[in-house]
Design goal:
The complex is a heterotrimer of chains A (461), B (292) and C (316). By secondary structure, chain B is mostly helical. Helices cover 72% and strands 0% of the residues of chain B. Chain B has 2 domains: 64 residues, no CATH class; 218 residues, MetI-like fold. Chain C is globular and about 70 Å long. Classes of the chains: A alpha/beta (461), B mainly alpha (292), C mainly alpha (316). Chain C: Its main location: membrane.
Chain lengths: 461, 292, 316
């Protein structure tokens, strides 16, 4: 601490004369040891106050970690990843020592050298080699260095409101498996209940993200690698088919509800209020619906595997915890300790998982037993699931259409290069289709592809 | 205050036709103003106590059947509105102080002390009026995250808001022009009495300049209370953000009724201040509003 | 601003005639005087140096550089400008911004003038009118926008529900590229009108009553008094406010950012939002700075006109 006042004095008589409380000052030198020699580790991933059970668990974990690792103080941050401001914060250099980003981001961050490899440290953990290679690949560089620890990996499915299904005379135990069936069900729901049959996201890059899922389900791809450079391929037939489906549902069937400019949170918020029949989402949206948006009737939450129309594939995703370049060696070492303790171990060890589940389940507002993709292999995941089962407070049978259907699907990652850029461009295509009756799908896609490719080409120069 | 002569004269008003017309225009205007002034505020309060299901099923109900009162507490504690309001106060307070301090000292130096090349400095200050900080936010951000020479990173600290708040050329101009108008004989007399330069400022100039200090304060406080884009860029840590930035994030992260309750809490302080001090504020704002 | 500024300027002209003598009497004292004077300028010099002058220069530099803020920047000449002009979104954003400005002037300009004219004729309770008209200005912009976003909601929003009662709509407001910008302008007008009304009112108070009386004696009716006395007397205030409005609306950001995020289909993507996206979404700081530079030039021209008008107004 003694250095700080001198630095401030350097900024001149102003700072000295201003004599404001130096509250803003404590953060001037992030990632430095506090006065009594403790190392302060700033980590993202602390749940917001609205998610009380999860926050309580986080605090408990922190206390246990600090007890097991004297000399390290963990300071949680609720900062959530936002592609709009994230690179600003990262370049600002005052980012935490552990950051939490969605699975789209690690590749870009690794390429831009904004995060640091943690392979050496992580290898000290006994089960390092058992990570699911499909998942770990997405957070490793080409030369095999690993950069992070994954959490709750998921595959997209179709979330649906079982109650609205029943009201519309549909069977909630056999949800749609093809997109034609989705269309028919959506039409029926909106006719019989007056609620939105199916809602598609269109804002904050999530329109492009959801169109990617649809494209995969129709058997297409949105990016290709040719001669070592990546290029967008928006004009494939599957993407066009997907958009034609949306167009028909929106304008012919009028089954997509009134409001069209939604991001994921908007959709889940409406779903939690019982206003939405179906949307593309993972089982993890259950947590948001229940804990953040206070869904009262959680028995109505149902989720099926992604319906297919020729693709037999679904999009995967998840959260990853990374260590930014700005953390020095001591902090990076402490960060990996924390990652192992808080995320790797509880997803591997049945006792740790059971303990976590138990403490979460103490609050009836928590969500325990939501299925995830295996972080390690399938056998390990089965053991974890079994260990959690006694504490599960979700209706596991309502997740069965998902887990059963998922087995037969290919799991595809997001577009590997600059996915967010593709999504931005596709957002406005989706918006056009959903808000303009006479939107020209082919022309829109061609124009978006051209724009994005100009940008991708410039970036790969 | 005697009645002002306007384009409708006293003579006009004596004619029944005109009088009726004028009166009905007045009443109509009053109704419209009530609708657009108080209406939205009322609707916001109503929305904050209405259960989300009722919000969608009976959107036009004037008051919910079973009003909720818990939303305000939820918004204040769980959504963190209390902390965001405190953050806003810190930001506003610091920005106000810096702006007043810089404007007063600079105005004093340029107007009363008049150092050599002072006019050059004044010109350079005024020139910044041509480059609004919003347009310049990218390079301001780059600068704030790595101050030249000092290599300090002010990002995610309140200094990143407070210090740039001082760069308001308009308030420097206001201060200087006001000080210019003060009688110089007073300063000379004070000098003869042995007053130091600092005492000249604090004992003579400032006490005589209350009106302009009030206007500068009003401008500074209004601006920093309403500012959105710069805190959005400079403060990414949710723990430090002001209410305006936090609300934009909460908009999609909170249930509708809680969000509206949070909005009511955010509106309450400025509206209350306005209601209490409106006599003084409306008079002052007539001048300051130009700066928008 | 000049309402306040006029009087001091006049007085300043008087005070300049008496030279600042005593400081020059002795050289030592003069030097010390200079030092003290500069010492009082230090806060302004530091603050303006770090947070105004340097960023302006730096912005110019970055527009010719490629930088990710972590590695040292490299010079790329006009590359940033080239990729800026190659981006079709630039035309969209400029067009959208002009549309916003045009609509804001069209709707937001006559409304406060009209309101002020009506309020100026109110004899009892004018304070209530003023209070009500200024109330929306007090609401923080983000709250106002979120409130209107709720009103605009195509499903359960106030507007569509109310209009539905009289058989109109439903309208898509923010959700169609045709009406999104108009919806933004309506909110912005509501939120910003109060300030202009108060300024017009202040100016109207300043119009000498004799002018009206003379016109009335000449047989001018109410309408002609408005047309031949009120409006000509307000000419300079009107010009001034028009320019202020132009300057402010060209920089529109919060409305599109919070309302629509630039959508639908980029219909509300404004120049400032594009700058923000380049920098903080794409990390293309150079390109963002290049666009900022172009915008500064436009704004500087507008501001120059503004200052000119202010000056002629204060002297007239």
């Amino acid at each position: 601490m003694p250095r700080i006042p001198r630095r401030v004095a350097l900024t001149g008589s102003l700072a000295a004369a201003v004599a404001l409380p130096l509250t803003g000052c404590s953060a001037l030198t992030p990632s430095k040891a506090s006065s009594d020699g403790d190392l302060v580790l700033r980590v993202q991933g602390m749940p917001p106050a609205t998610e009380k059970p999860a926050l309580a668990l986080f605090k408990k974990q922190v206390a246990e970690f600090e007890k097991a690792n004297p000399g390290i103080m963990v300071k949680g941050s609720t900062t959530v990843f936002d592609p709009l401001t994230f690179s600003a914060k990262l370049s600002g250099g005052n980012v935490e020592d552990v950051i939490k980003v969605p699975l789209t981001e690690p590749q870009r961050l690794i390429q831009q050298g904004q995060v640091q490899p943690i392979t050496g440290q992580l290898q000290k953990w006994d089960h390092f080699k058992e990570f699911n290679p499909q998942v770990i690949k997405q957070l490793s560089s080409g030369d095999g260095e690993v950069y992070g620890v994954p959490q709750y990996p998921y595959a997209q499915g179709l979330v649906y409101n079982r109650e609205l299904f029943e009201k519309a005379g549909l069977d909630p135990d056999s949800p749609p498996t093809t997109w034609d069936e989705v269309r028919a069900a959506a039409k029926r729901i909106s006719e019989r209940t007056g609620r939105a049959g199916f809602v598609h996201e269109s804002k904050d890059n999530q329109g492009g993200w959801q169109l990617t899922m649809l494209t995969y389900a129709f058997g297409g791809d949105l990016e290709k690698l040719e001669n070592g450079t990546y290029a967008a391929t928006f004009t494939g037939e599957p993407t066009k088919k997907a958009l034609r489906l949306l167009k028909d549902m929106r304008w012919k069937d009028d089954s997509m509800g009134r409001s069209q400019l939604n991001n994921q949170n908007d959709v889940i918020k409406q779903f939690a209020a019982g206003q939405v029949g179906m949307f593309m989402g993972s089982p993890g949206t259950y947590r948001l619906a229940k804990m953040q948006f206070g869904m009262a009737d959680t028995d109505a939450f149902g989720v099926a595997a992604m319906p297919q129309s020729g693709g037999n594939a679904t999009l995967t995703g998840g959260d990853v915890y990374l260590v930014p370049k700005s953390a020095d060696a001591r902090h990076a070492a402490a960060a990996v300790k924390w990652l192992t303790f808080a995320y790797a171990q509880p997803q591997y060890s049945t006792t740790a998982a059971a303990q976590q589940a138990k403490s979460l389940a103490e609050d009836p507002k928590s969500a325990v037993g939501v299925p995830t993709l295996p972080v390690f292999d399938a056998a390990r995941q089965a053991r974890i699931d079994a260990a959690i089962k006694p504490y599960a407070n979700v209706r596991t049978e309502h997740f069965e259409p998902y887990t059963e259907g998922l087995a037969g699907l290919d799991l595809k990652a997001e577009p590997p290069y600059q996915a967010q850029r593709l999504y931005t461009a596709l957002d406005s295509v989706v918006q056009a289709v959903l808000t303009k009756r006479d939107a020209k799908i082919d022309a829109l896609l061609a124009a978006a592809e051209k724009d994005v490719n100009a940008k991708l080409a410039a970036d790969q120069k | 205050m005697t009645a002002l002569t306007t384009f409708v004269s006293a003579h006009d008003r004596r004619r029944p036709g005109v009088r009726a017309a004028v009166r009905s225009v007045h009443v109509l205007t009053l109704l419209v103003l009530l609708l657009i002034g108080v209406g939205p505020l009322y609707w916001m309060v109503k929305g904050a106590v209405t259960p989300p299901s009722e919000l969608t099923t009976h959107p036009l109900a004037l008051w919910p059947d079973r009003p909720l009162t818990g939303n305000f507490a939820t918004a204040y504690h769980d959504l963190g509105v209390g902390r965001y309001l405190l953050n806003t106060c810190l930001i506003v307070g610091g920005s106000w102080f810096v702006q007043l301090f810089v404007s007063a000292t600079a105005g004093f130096a340029l107007s009363v002390l008049r150092p050599r090349f002072g006019r050059v400095v004044y010109g350079a200050v005024l020139a910044t009026m041509f480059v609004p900080y919003t347009v310049n936010m990218v390079s301001l951000f780059v600068t704030v995250t790595d101050l030249p020479f000092l290599h300090l990173n002010l990002g995610d600290t309140y200094w990143a808001i407070w210090l740039p708040a001082g760069t308001n050329a308009f308030t420097v101009l206001l201060a200087k022009q006001f000080f210019d108008a003060l009688p110089r004989e007073l300063f000379d007399a004070a000098r003869v009495d042995g007053a130091s330069t600092r005492q000249l400022l604090t004992r003579i100039v400032l006490p005589m300049s209350r009106p302009v200090l009030a206007v500068i304060s009003l401008l500074a406080i209004m601006h920093s209370w309403k500012d959105f884009i710069w805190p959005l860029v400079a403060l990414t840590d949710p723990e430090k953000q002001p209410i305006s930035v936090a609300l934009a994030q909460l908009a999609t992260q909170a249930p509708q009724d809680q969000l509206i309750a949070a909005m009511v809490l955010a509106v309450a302080p400025p509206v209350l201040v306005f209601v209490v001090c409106q006599k003084y504020l409306v008079a002052g704002l007539g001048f300051t509003g130009v700066k928008g | 601003m000049s309402l306040l500024a006029t009087e001091p300027t006049r007085a300043a002209a008087v005070s300049k005639e008496s030279p600042a003598g005593p400081a020059r009497r002795r050289r030592g004292r003069a030097v010390r005087g200079q030092l003290t004077a500069w010492a009082f300028l230090v806060p302004a010099l530091l603050v303006f140096g770090f947070f105004a002058w340097w960023p302006i220069l730096r912005g110019l530099l970055i527009s010719f550089q490629r930088t990710n803020l972590t590695d040292p920047p490299t010079w790329v000449g006009l590359d940033n400008f080239r990729s800026l002009f190659a981006d079709p979104l630039l035309t969209t954003a400029v067009g959208n911004t002009l549309l916003f400005v045009a609509l804001a002037v069209l709707i937001g300009f006559p409304a406060p003038l009209l309101l002020a004219a009506v309020i100026s004729t109110v004899r009892r309770g004018a304070g209530v009118y003023r209070f009500l008209v200024y109330l929306p200005v007090v609401i923080p912009p983000v709250v106002a926008i979120l409130l209107w976003k709720w009103f605009y909601d195509p499903g359960s929003g106030l507007f569509n529900s109310a209009l539905g009662l009289v058989g109109l709509g439903p309208y898509s407001w923010l959700e169609s590229s045709g009406s999104a910008m108009l919806s933004l302008v309506l909110e912005a007008t509501w939120a910003g009108m109060g300030g202009a009304v108060l300024i017009y009112l202040a100016a109207m108070v300043g119009i000498p009553g004799e002018l009206y009386e003379a016109a009335e004696v000449d047989g001018a009716g109410v309408r002609r008094r408005v047309w031949h006395v009120l409006l000509p007397q307000l000419r300079s205030v009107i010009g001034l406010l028009l320019l202020v409005q132009l300057l402010n609306t060209v920089q529109v950001f919060t409305e599109p950012y919070v309302f629509t995020g630039g959508g639908p289909e980029s219909a509300t993507l404004t120049v400032l939002l594009l700058i923000f996206r380049y920098a903080f979404q794409d990390g293309a700081y150079g390109q963002a700075a290049a666009l900022s530079c172009l915008m500064v030039i436009v704004l500087a021209l507008l501001s120059a006109v503004y200052l000119r008008v202010t000056r002629t107004w204060s002297s007239s």
